């Protein structure tokens, strides 16, 4: 039997219908078609999938394709290769799997309509944060404008919680970036569990999250925030068998007080400034929560 290793001519390849798309990290949205029987992933400029990131080894992993099946193999890299958050030495890839090397996440796509899947994925990238899989800031601000408009029109309550992980840089520095990423994902899941399906919750920045609570007063939002704060404070965050202490600081505000602070009334045109005023009020309070010692909530 003769096995041909090397470039497969486009059009003849059962592998042309597979690719990796960067969903987190440098070159977001970049697509790598898996056209060769063996593709090297690493920092080296010899790599077929070259990712210039410190946390990635020069020859980090290899993806091998045979008869439409793909396997990823770690090449004894320093920081490991992960598939769907599990460290792997060698692992078959299935459609939708997320491969993480260093800070980069690549999504494996395969199937008969790879272009459609790819465009769907690109659309997801405009609304969903690749690391935490919750909404991103772009989506949040768009939705917030809509919800604020409705709350003003019908004079309904609307509260906002802005939440920041304390000393997150120290977590990265002490336990490594992979541990930091793990904490971000866990915190996102905790917030999700503490919010209502009608709430709009997003990753707002590096280690900052935001939740908009329609038809809820500030006092209700404070109860939600306090329960979340306590939960995260007492919950063990574990990564690679190591326990990481995590706490949150939060600023809480509501639309009525934000609009009072703005000194405006009625009309459509000021929705943008109402959004801005609400975020600013919560952000000022978050700043105070940090100043007075962290692991706390400021709401007024
Ligand atoms: N692991 C990881 N780190 C990130 C990510 N995004 C941002 N960061 C890091 O988050 C850190 C934020 O640090 P700072 O803004 O100094 O805040 P902090 O250390 O949390 O300090 P306080 O907010 O004052 O308690 C920076 O070191 C960023 O590099 C990410 O996606 N993953």
UniProtKB/TrEMBL annotation:
FHA domain boundaries: 39-88
Reactions this protein catalyses: 2 GTP = 3',3'-c-di-GMP + 2 diphosphate
Question: From what organism does this protein derive?
Answer: Nitrococcus mobilis Nb-231
EC number of this enzyme: 2.7.7.65
Q: Which PROSITE patterns match?
A: FHA_DOMAIN, GGDEF
Q: Where is the GGDEF domain?
A: 156-300
Q: What is its cofactor?
A: Mg(2+)
Organism superkingdom: Bacteria
Q: Which GO terms describe its molecular function?
A: diguanylate cyclase activity
Question: Any idea what this protein is called?
Answer: diguanylate cyclase
- Annotated PANTHER family: DIGUANYLATE CYCLASE DGCM-RELATED, REGULATORY COMPONENTS OF SENSORY TRANSDUCTION SYSTEM
Q: What InterPro entries does its record include?
A: Diguanylate_Cyclase (IPR050469), FHA_dom (IPR000253), GGDEF_dom (IPR000160), Nucleotide_cyclase (IPR029787), Rev_trsase/Diguanyl_cyclase (IPR043128), SMAD_FHA_dom_sf (IPR008984)
């Amino acid at each position: 039997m003769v096995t041909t290793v090397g470039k497969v001519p486009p059009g003849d390849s059962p592998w042309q219908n597979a690719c990796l798309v960067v969903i987190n990290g440098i070159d977001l949205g970049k697509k790598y078609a898996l056209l060769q029987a063996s593709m090297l992933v690493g920092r080296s400029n010899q790599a077929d999938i070259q990712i210039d990131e410190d946390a990635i080894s020069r020859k980090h992993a290899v993806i091998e394709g045979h008869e439409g099946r793909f396997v990823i193999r770690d090449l004894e890299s320093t920081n490991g290769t992960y598939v769907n958050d599990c460290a792997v030495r060698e692992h078959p890839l299935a459609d939708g799997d997320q491969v993480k090397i260093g800070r980069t996440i690549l999504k494996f796509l395969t199937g008969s309509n790879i272009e459609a899947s790819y465009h769907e994925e690109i659309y997801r990238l405009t609304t969903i944060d690749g690391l935490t899989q919750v909404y991103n800031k772009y989506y949040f601000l768009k939705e917030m404008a809509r919800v604020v408009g409705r709350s003003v029109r019908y004079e309904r309550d609307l509260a906002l919680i802005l939440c920041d992980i304390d000393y997150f840089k120290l977590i990265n520095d002490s336990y490594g970036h992979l541990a930091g990423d793990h904490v971000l994902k866990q915190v996102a899941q905790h917030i999700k569990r503490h919010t209502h399906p009608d709430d709009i919750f997003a990753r707002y920045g590096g280690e900052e999250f935001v939740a908009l609570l329609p038809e809820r007063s500030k006092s209700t939002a404070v109860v939600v925030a306090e329960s979340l704060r306590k939960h995260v404070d007492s919950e063990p965050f574990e990564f690679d068998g190591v326990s990481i202490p995590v706490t949150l600081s939060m600023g809480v505000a509501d639309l009525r007080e934000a609009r009072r602070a703005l000194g405006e009334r009625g009309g459509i045109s000021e929705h943008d400034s109402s959004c801005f005023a609400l975020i600013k009020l919560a952000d000022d309070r978050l700043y105070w929560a940090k100043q007075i010692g962290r692991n706390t909530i400021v709401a007024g």
